[in-house]
From TrEMBL:
The YlxR domain, residue ranges: 1-59
PANTHER family with a match to the protein in the record: BLL0784 PROTEIN, YLXR DOMAIN-CONTAINING PROTEIN
Pfam family, one: YlxR
Biological source species: Gluconobacter wancherniae NBRC 103581
Protein name according to UniProt: YlxR domain-containing protein
InterPro entries, alphabetized: Ribosomal_eL30-like_sf (IPR029064), YlxR (IPR037465), YlxR-like_sf (IPR035931), YlxR_dom (IPR007393)
Amino acid sequence: MIRFVVGPGNRIVPDLAAKLPGRGMWLSASRDVLDSGRTRQAFARAAKAQVTVPDGLADLVQAALAQRLLDSVSLARRAGQAVCGFQKSREWLTSGRAGVVIRSDSASPDEFSRLVSGRRDLPVATVPDRVLASAFGRDRAVYAVVAPGALAQRLIAEHERFSGVAGRPLPDPAGVSKEQAEL
């Protein structure tokens, strides 16, 4: 769910941290719900006032959620609860120190299967390439692992919201999207 509030000038503002003052309006974290909320005047009805919905609201929310993903991974890295790279990630997976596996959009499915072999029960977050690279200060990063705990749970929650708004199917622990598994 994503919270929205009415900001200055009766403009709708996404409140991703759910901390802004004012009466909140909650919508499902789905691109089609955000788009239909704009066209069906759902924000005006919920606010009980005439409001201005910014053009490209779904794209604005998607970019902000990608930034929250980056912040979550960066925070885990700075806290010493995340490692990056195939070999380090594999070591954490085999030693049982992994709570979430993160892979970039450009990750090879075959290589990913080798990485998680034996640990397919872990949640998998597929993020844009720039998120991992920026979080670890590298030109390119493909795999990362986050230790179990509050930061891992935060990352999973942010990933679910991002996937819904980006229109991506959520992968199952084996790395196959739920949409592909149903086929």
